[in-house]
Amino acid sequence: MKNLYILKTIKTLLCCSLFIFLGCEEETNTDDYNDGGGSGGSSLTNTIWRGSEDTNTYLKFTSSTVTKCYSGNEVATGTYNSNSITFVVPANGETLVFPLSTYSDHIVVGVPAGFENEFDPEAYYPSSTYPCGGGGGGGDTTGNITFWTQSDHGCGPISVTISNGQTGTINSYFTNGLTNCGTSGCANFTLPAGNYSYTATCSGYTWSNSFTITAGSCSLKKLIL
Predict the structure, then answer these.
(1) Going from the N-terminus, what domains does the chain have, and what CATH number goes with each?
(2) DSSP the chain
(3) How do residues 86-124 score in pLDDT, each as one tens digit?
(4) N or C: which end of the chain has fewer CB within 10 A?
(5) So what's the pLDDT on residue 9?
(6) Max CA separation in the chain (angstroms)
(7) How crowded is the C-beta side of 146, counted as CA atoms within 13 Å?
């Protein structure tokens, strides 16, 4: 009986501490989040994600670590792989593993084993901002890319679509070249660090390829026939 009481006390303490990571609520069926996407296998390196319900909650991924930001403060740093996030709970140093699933437009942080009735899984969506400075990063979290042409291709405005759904238009050409991002007449984008693809089209022509954004960078992408 005494051992049972101790176990319940430990679990209560963990529940209070776990509020840092997941809100104490009634259990939610994780099938609510399944939209046909796969789980695991996707790199989250150098990406930032915002909680879908609590806009004060963010996750920032580096090459092998993940930091949780809550209400402007970094509250926990852990490690991750394609299938899970591992945090050490401050209350007693216990290590807990949170299942991690990746989908086409969001990720879901699951609930550690044994706490399914106290917590809900939490969905996160891509974010271009990270409101916490300090230990987990801060500073620039986005980079710029500009699509441009050096000659008139005679096909009218060129529409550029990024894999995250953003679009822009090239309606000028620059015979002397280009040196700066954000130049008027080009298709300009500011994006969170990460990997993307693009498709550019005009009457009779199509360009497509992939590119990488790093924090604080400026990339110039010339479209060539």
Answers:
(1) 25-126 (2.40.128), 142-222 (2.60.40)
(2) -HHHHHHHHHHHHHHHHHTTTS-B-----GGGG--S---S----TTEEEEESS-TTEEEEE-SSEEEEEETTEEEEEEEE-SSEEEEE-TTT--EEEEEEEE-SS-EEE---TT-TTTB--EEEEE-S-----BTTB-S--EEEEEEE-SS--SS-PEEEEETTS-EEEE----TT----TT-TTSEEEEEESEEEEEEEEETTEEEEEEEEE-TT-EEEEE---
(3) 877 655 567 888 898 888 888 888 888 877 777 788 888
(4) N
(5) 39
(6) 83
(7) 20
Residue 16 is encoded by which pair of tokens? 């209070």
pLDDT at 187 over 90: yes
